[in-house]
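Researcher: Next entry in the queue.
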Amino acid sequence: MDTTVVMSVMRDAVGVTLKLGGPMLLLSMLVGVVVAVLQAVTQIHEQTISFALKLIVVVLVLLVKQGLMVFDYVKSMTAGGPGTATQTIALLIYNNGFERNRYSYSIAQAIATGVIIALISAIQIQASNRKKVD
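Model: Structure for this entry, 134 residues:
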């Protein structure tokens, strides 16, 4: 093994680590900054508020991310079967687009899924903002 190959593998490993851990780290840092600003403005310095909000955000991101990343497990193990018992939304979109050649239908499904996720995110952000003010 040459040193260039080792460096390339290490660079790829760091890139994958940043891609997987980046969203959680960025969101927890953003929540930390928001909580710090609120604590500075309101002069309420409670450690559990900061910790609890960061923990909740990280857990929610992990749950949503895991639900969306289950596609490859279902595709490789069961292909959505038996029947459609283990079919996920992502697998349905994939099957419509690439196996049934219904591209426009799968694009519409993907856009609808994205809009639903955006609406859920907006509701969650509004709810967390109300709790911070109270």
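Model: The mean pLDDT is 77.
Researcher: Noted, moving on.
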